[in-house]
């Protein structure tokens, strides 16, 4: 007997929740969750926990204590099961081999290696397939993956903290502690969720940041630094070799250890070159923690997908002004202790939702 629409929604929401547990670890693969039910009861579930490890469908099938039930089961998968051999065998073949008769899919996979082939395999094997259940929620969860596949560039998140009177830093770029403790923890969580973290020369020079993850469990991002003339001191934390670091420059410099240098053309626009290089490196998302020069340049060119502004009640009375983009597309407004968080999305640049 087919499941009710409400039950399908409930199970797909569960699968999306499971998929989100792989954030930061599954990259550059998409986030995928899978729930398997039998007669209205969950008998197995799983998610893609780690890049190179078993996919969600594999983990969900392995969690079923009585495999004989699979031939009368219904599988909910947040992304079209793969149909090609990558680091693991095709998941479509796995579902077929276990005789699962019904599969519900949230999103189709835009990866040219899949792109409908997984569903074709399932249907050719006689499996009943439904698609588009909670499609918008699935695209938001995998917005990094969809942007990377469809726009051939990383998903770009601009982040800054500003005072109530609109400043990023003190006079002459003097670093100032603007955000409270909860906001700082949130920033470290964001760092763990994005593949790369980008800053410009001035931020690197004045802040001397580590750009790692300290106050949240998760992997460090790749450090990305714009240093056009290689003017940053080699003693700065960015060059300590503790995590992969890429410097974008107009000068020639040999790559060494965990530190790479990419020479860009002065005759071409800066950020399209950077994003093209990151696409080639398979870097799916970038958190931009740069100063006003970097932020305003990306805002001016519309090269952003999401903006996160942390607004503090603190006032400076003067200093380096925060960007004033006149944003629309507010997706979230919440409080983090004494600070306010505003999240905007660039609807003109988002994958179709």
From TrEMBL:
Molecular-function GO term, any one: diaminohydroxyphosphoribosylaminopyrimidine deaminase activity
Biological role: Converts 2,5-diamino-6-(ribosylamino)-4(3h)-pyrimidinone 5'-phosphate into 5-amino-6-(ribosylamino)-2,4(1h,3h)-pyrimidinedione 5'-phosphate.
PANTHER family registered for this protein in UniProt: 2,5-DIAMINO-6-RIBOSYLAMINO-4(3H)-PYRIMIDINONE 5'-PHOSPHATE REDUCTASE (PTHR38011:SF7), DIHYDROFOLATE REDUCTASE FAMILY PROTEIN (AFU_ORTHOLOGUE AFUA_8G06820) (PTHR38011)
UniProt-listed PROSITE patterns: CYT_DCMP_DEAMINASES_1, CYT_DCMP_DEAMINASES_2
Keyword Translocase: no
Name of the molecule in the record: Riboflavin biosynthesis protein RibD
Keywords, alphabetical: Hydrolase, Metal-binding, Multifunctional enzyme, NADP, Oxidoreductase, Riboflavin biosynthesis, Zinc
Gene: ribD
Species, as recorded: Hymenobacter yonginensis
EC number: 3.5.4.26, 1.1.1.193
Pfam annotation, one family: dCMP_cyt_deam_1
CMP/dCMP-type deaminase domain: residues covered: 6-130
UniProt xrefs under NCBIfam families: eubact_ribD
InterPro entries: APOBEC/CMP_deaminase_Zn-bd, CMP_dCMP_dom, Cytidine_deaminase-like, DHFR-like_dom_sf, Eubact_RibD, RibDG_C, Riboflavin_Biosynth_HTPR
Superkingdom of the organism of origin: Bacteria
């Amino acid at each position: 007997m087919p499941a009710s629409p409400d039950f399908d929604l409930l199970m797909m929401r569960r699968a999306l929740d499971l998929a989100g547990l792989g954030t930061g670890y599954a990259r550059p693969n998409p986030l995928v969750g899978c729930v398997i039910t039998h007669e209205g009861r969950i008998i197995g579930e799983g998610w893609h926990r780690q890049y190179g490890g078993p996919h969600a469908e594999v983990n969900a099938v392995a969690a079923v204590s009585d495999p004989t039930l699979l031939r009368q089961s219904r599988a909910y998968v947040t992304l079209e099961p793969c149909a090609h051999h990558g680091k693991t065998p095709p998941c479509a073949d796995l579902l077929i081999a276990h005789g699962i008769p019904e599969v519900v899919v949230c999103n189709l996979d835009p990866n040219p290696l899949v792109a409908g082939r997984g569903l074709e395999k399932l249907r050719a094997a006689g499996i009943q397939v439904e698609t588009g259940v909670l499609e918008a929620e699935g695209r938001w969860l995998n917005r990094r993956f969809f942007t990377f596949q469809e726009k051939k560039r990383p998903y770009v998140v601009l982040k800054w903290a500003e005072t109530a009177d609109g400043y990023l830093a003190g006079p002459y770029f003097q670093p100032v502690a603007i955000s409270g403790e909860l906001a700082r923890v949130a920033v470290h969580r964001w760092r763990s969720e994005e593949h790369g973290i980008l800053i410009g020369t001035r931020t690197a020079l004045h802040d001397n940041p580590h750009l790692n993850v300290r106050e949240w469990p998760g992997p460090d991002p790749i450090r990305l630094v714009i240093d056009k003339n290689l003017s940053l001191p080699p003693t700065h934390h960015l060059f300590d070799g503790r995590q992969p670091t890429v410097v974008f420059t107009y000068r020639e410099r040999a790559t060494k250890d965990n530190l790479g240098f990419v020479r860009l053309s002065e005759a071409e626009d800066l950020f399209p070159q950077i994003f093209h290089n990151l696409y080639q490196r398979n870097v799916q998302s970038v958190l931009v923690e740069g100063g006003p020069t970097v932020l305003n340049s990306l805002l001016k060119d519309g090269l952003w997908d999401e903006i996160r502004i942390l607004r503090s009640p603190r006032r400076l009375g003067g200093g380096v002004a925060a960007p004033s983009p006149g944003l629309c597309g507010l997706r979230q407004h919440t409080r983090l202790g004494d600070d306010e968080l505003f999240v905007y999305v660039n609807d003109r640049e988002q994958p179709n939702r």
